[in-house]
Amino acid sequence: MPNERDELPRWMRSALRAPVAARADHVHQIMDVVRGAAAAEARVRRARRRRMTRARTFALAVVASAAGVAILAGSVRAMWQSSLPEPLEASATFIGDSIDPALHDTFDLVRFALRTRGASRVVLAGDFNAWSTTATPLSRSLLPNAERWAAVVALRRHDRRFAFLVDGTRWVRAPRAPVRADVRPPSSDASPYRDST
């Protein structure tokens, strides 16, 4: 018996050196097994890729749906807010002694102002211009996105009733006219305009 330090026995070496004779049908069988294993691995990779693609598509669809819902909710909110009556701020401010002293006893200078959203034209109508819808247009502020309209008008002391006409269709109630201590207000505050605020 050979000891552990010896080489392999001679018969073993010769058997290992001898060529292996393989039959043609064995070669085909072995190659079929190798091809089958490679095809199975390719099928597994394709299935994994399809699952990943489906998961990505689903995630993208969820994100797109959420974005669509958010945009729709924002649009509905904006439409709802635009349908509400807009906040308006109307004012009439007595300017004081800035009028010609000769006319001071008869006229007062009053600055009329209106803050409104989305208006393209604002007109002041009242007792002083026989409720004309064209005689006293207000000027828009020169600032970008300005919502403020204003005009300075010389009023006779007894002309106290007025209203703003926005875009020729909507009347806005006027605040109480400025009253000086030495002038008595008219007995009636009624104005011949339709109030839409």
What can you tell me about this protein's structure?
- This protein is an alpha+beta fold and 197 residues long.
- It is built from two helices and seven strands, in the order H-H-E-E-E-E-E-E-E.
- It is rod-shaped and about 140 Å long.
- It starts with 9 loop residues before the first helix and ends in a 24-residue tail after the last strand.
- Mean pLDDT is 76; it is low at 177-197.
Q: Radius of gyration, Cα only, in angstroms?
A: 47 Å
Structural class: alpha+beta
State the CATH class of the largest domain. Mainly Beta
pLDDT < 50 runs, ≥5 residues: 177-197
Per DSSP E runs of 2 or more residues, the count of β-strands stands at 7
In CATH terms, the superfamily of the largest domain is Immunoglobulins
Binned strand content: 15-25%
Widest β-sheet, arrangement of strands: 1-2-5-4
Order of helices and strands: HHEEEEEEE
Give the helix proportion (percent range). 25-40%
Gross morphology is rod-shaped
